[in-house]
Hints:
Layout: H1 2-5, H2 25-35, H3 40-46
Amino acid sequence: KDTTLNGTYPISRPLFMFTPGWPEGDVLNFINFVLNPEKGQKYVEEAGFVPLY
Length: 53
């Protein structure tokens, strides 16, 4: 986990989310959900991936 988070693990890569302009409405809600440590990031970890925090 530590090497993935600090970028030294050889097969890790960042994930970007792009929006046409500043996110609003459902798009902003989704991004906030994904980034939330107790919500979206919990599911990321449960799926076997490394969470952001």
